[in-house]
Amino acid sequence: MATVTKSIEIKAPVDNVFTYFARPEHVSDQIKNDAVGMAVVPMDIKEGMGVGTTFRIIGNFNGKQLEWDCETTQFDRNERISAKQIDGPFKKWSITNEFKSLGPNKTRVTMTVDYDMPFGPLGSIMDKAKFAKSAERGMETALYNVRGLLEGNGSIPVYITLDAYRKLLDEKKKMNDLPVSTVLTAILEKYEQTKTAV
């Protein structure tokens, strides 16, 4: 059994951070580097991505591809999200994201993965040699990327054009440098109001 834990502080309200992590595919978008790649595919979504939601993880760890299905087991708004493997290669695999508000615009996120490698004794050797290090690097990279994105100074999301992102940053300045996610939410709410008024 192995446990990998990483924490980071993000300059954003706990509600914004929790909302981002509540969609597992958002975080998987951030886990991409030379050694690790991960995709998360939602399968059966329960209300608000809550308890009972199932999703498939497709991971590439130093050239070794693994797939496993997970189910959300705990969903406490602005506090904790947990999921565990329900079908896949690991003897055991679970992830917990914990959120602690450190003030109106600061949140600590702690990501913990507990797992038991497949392949018996060979799995333990593989774990020590490669998997644990690549998992740790992937988690750390993901947390830094999420922080950059939620603080509004990260890489441009692939689903937004450069021009649109620049306009978003201009609005961010007008709104006293609130996090990008807050600014985007405000813009979308304003758009919805004008759409319903027409």
How would you describe the overall organization of this protein?
The protein is α+β, with helices and mostly antiparallel strands and 198 residues long. It folds into two domains: 2-151, Alpha-D-Glucose-1,6-Bisphosphate, Chain A, domain 4; 162-197. It has five helices and seven strands, in the order βααββββββααα. A seven-stranded antiparallel β-sheet has the order 1-7-6-5-4-3-2. Strand 4 (64-76) and strand 5 form a beta hairpin. Helix 2 (24-30) crosses helix 3. The termini are far apart.
Mean of pLDDT: 80
Overall geometric form: globular
Look up the CATH topology of the largest domain.
Answer: Alpha-D-Glucose-1,6-Bisphosphate, Chain A, domain 4
**SS-derived structural category:** alpha+beta
Element pattern in H and E: EHHEEEEEEHHH
Between the first and last Cα atoms, what is the distance in angstroms? 58 Å
Strand order across the largest sheet: 1-7-6-5-4-3-2
Rg, alpha carbons = 18 Å
CATH superfamily of the largest domain: START domain
% residues in beta strands = 35-45%
What is the CATH C level class of the largest domain, in words?
A: Alpha Beta
Oligomer category:
single chain
Task: Please tally the β strands and state the result.
Answer: 7
Given the structure, what is the number of helices?
5
Helix content: 25-40%
Total number of distinct structural domains: 2
